[in-house]
Amino acid sequence: GESVGLHLPTLSVQEGDNSIINCAYSNSASDYFIWYKQESGKGPQFIIDIRSNMDKRQGQRVTVLLNKTVKHLSLQIAATQPGDSAVYFCAEKRGNEKLTFGTGTRLTIIP
Amino acid sequence: SAVISQKPSRDICQRGTSLTIQCQVDSQVTMMFWYRQQPGQSLTLIATANQGSEATYESGFVIDKFPISRPNLTFSTLTVSNMSPEDSSIYLCSVDGGRLDEQYFGPGTRLTVT
């Protein structure tokens, strides 16, 4: 469904630690999921995607986990760096339907 | 991934006026999308623009308020008409990646209506 809310969930992580950002999606029929990173003053940047026939996908320092049973998506960032500070959005879609965005989580890396 | 540019990057406009936002892509793309992101919130799709056809608007958005042009496969414009302070938002252009379902975003246009 549509994301709502004026207050973004926040997560603070010490530099060098791993971070996990969670997302609950709404449509059990969704078959494609994307994580985006949005830095202040910029547009969302594609990070990693995953299809519903997978439960894990790895990129460079990032891993996305998909649990279809509970409709949960997570983004793990290893060895966080100051440049990882941003708002992270998950997005879902079904077939050719529109991409629907989650609320977003603000990640702050503490030096 | 496609390289997307938007003009203007930001603007301050008076209520009742209109602003046209341009989106340019460095490669031909089938689908272009326009989103609105209100302060501190997530992204909401305004409309989908395919070349050679009328844009498809999402619920709550109408062509009279947000007319869209898509004259070719690398360019689109979104006009925000008869603006009010409630239209103050970031407006984002997005394109399909041409591979799988990837979708990429431009840098956005930050609009403030006074």
In words, what does this structure look like?
The complex is a heterodimer of chains A (about 110) and B (about 110). With about 110 residues, chain A is mostly beta strands. The N and C termini of chain A lie far apart (about 35 Å). Chain A has no helices and ten strands. In chain A, a hairpin with a 3-residue loop joins strand 5 and strand 6. Helices cover about 0% and strands about 50% of the residues of chain A. Chain B is mostly beta strands and about 110 residues long. In chain B, strand 9 and strand 10 (about 105) form a beta hairpin. The interface of A and B includes residues 8, 46, 49 and 103 of A.
How far apart the termini of chain B lie comes to 36 Å
Q: What is the chains' assembly state? A: heterodimer
What integer value in Å does the Rg of chain A equal?
13 Å
Class of secondary structure makeup of chain A? mainly beta
> Level of helix content of chain B?
under 10%
State the order of secondary-structure elements of chain B, H for helix, E for strand: EEEEEEEEEEE
What is the overall silhouette of chain A? Answer: globular
Poorly predicted regions of chain A are 1-6
Round the Cα radius of gyration of chain B to an integer and report it: 13 Å
Percent of residues in helices of chain A comes to under 10%
Let me know the number of strands of chain A.
Answer: 10
Tally of alpha and pi helices of chain B:
0
The geometry of chain B reads as globular
| Biggest beta sheet summary of chain B | 7 strands, mixed
Biggest sheet overview of chain A: 6 strands, mixed
Question: What is the β-strand count of chain B?
Answer: 11
Please state roughly what percent of the residues of chain A sit in beta strands, choosing from under 5%, 5-15%, 15-25%, 25-35%, 35-45% or over 45%: over 45%
H and E order of chain A: EEEEEEEEEE
Count of helices of chain A? 0
Would you tell me the overall average pLDDT of chain A?
A: 91
Descriptive tags:
heterodimer; A: 111 residues; mainly beta; 6-stranded mixed beta sheet; 4-stranded antiparallel beta sheet; 10 strands; 0% helix; globular; disordered N terminus; B: 114 residues; 7-stranded mixed beta sheet; 11 strands
